[in-house]
Amino acid sequence: GAVVSQHPSWVICKSGTSVKIECRSLDFQATTMFWYRQFPKQSLMLMATSNEGSKATYEQGVEKDKFLINHASLTLSTLTVTSAHPEDSSFYICSASNPPVNTEAFFGQGTRLTVV
Amino acid sequence: QKEVEQNSGPLSVPEGAIASLNCTYSDRGSQSFFWYRQYSGKSPELIMSIYSNGDKEDGRFTAQLNKASQYVSLLIRDSQPSDSATYLCAVNPHTDKLIFGTGTRLQVFP
């Protein structure tokens, strides 16, 4: 299957600072990537769809000015959590698919964000 | 009605038994169906994909799809304690976005 790499795997930051998370497709080009958030013992929540070369599409209730998404190349999407607060502490996961070769989603390893 | 529904569990089965996980979906036009396994603190990993009605077997795993009933299931034979995880059903309603269920937590006890 396709390989998606996410970095960093964990990060601790102070309240009010910004954190950037990278998602790379290593062996295929991904015109679309997806960003999810998962709180403990809860399901995956889709935050936004990242489109290469255009603006991201955000799900209802997700603040686009707080969660900045950039998809400048076919292999890299970044999520920046701006002015992070403790309530932003969560597990952030990206995914990408490789249609028409693969329609399933391949996930990055996830990033555990802790805001103190 | 949720787009993809799963029983949250936990589903507890003894080691060596068959675990049966179920999922229903609302979009009748959905074409692609997936089962993911997620261990605590880890990201989901793909277990099975199925696209046409019937059964698809891969090792100890069998996915079953019934489009008329809008139902997809995952059977795990000879369950092992290492199978204990949350199993996520995902459906592609002919868009590039997967819709996930909330997951079923499986516990396999020795």
Characterization of this structure:
The complex is a heterodimer of chains A (about 120) and B (about 110). With about 120 residues, chain A is mainly beta. Chain A contains no helices and 11 strands. In chain A, strands 2, 4, 5, 6, 9, 10 and 11 form a 7-stranded mixed beta sheet that branches. Chain A has a 4-stranded antiparallel beta sheet with strand order 1-3-8-7, with no helix packed on it. Chain A is globular. Chain B is mainly β and about 110 residues long. Chain B contains no helices and 11 strands. In chain B, strands 2, 4, 5, 9, 10 and 11 form a 6-stranded mixed beta sheet that branches. In chain B, a hairpin with a 4-residue loop joins strand 7 and strand 8. Chains A and B meet through strand 9 and strand 10 of A and strand 4, strand 5 and strand 9 of B.
Give the fraction of residues assigned to helices of chain A: under 10%
Q: Let me know the number of strands of chain B.
A: 11
Strand content of chain A: over 45%
> Which chains make the largest contact?
A-B, 23 and 20 residues
pLDDT average of chain A, as an integer? 91
Overall radius of gyration of chain B = 13 Å
Q: List the helices and strands of chain A in order.
A: EEEEEEEEEEE
Number of helices, counting only DSSP H or I runs of 4 residues or more of chain A: 0
Largest sheet: number of strands, sense, barrel closure of chain A: 7 strands, mixed
Question: Which shape of chain B, going by the Cα principal axes?
Answer: globular
Quickly give the structural class of chain B.
mainly beta
Order of helices and strands of chain B: EEEEEEEEEEE
- Rg of chain A, Å, rounded: 13 Å
Strand content of chain B: over 45%
* Assembly context of the chains: heterodimer
**Poorly predicted parts of chain B:** none
| Content-based structural category of chain A | mainly beta
The rounded distance between the terminal residues' Cα atoms of chain B is 37 Å
Helix count of chain B, per DSSP?
Answer: 0
Helix content of chain B: under 10%
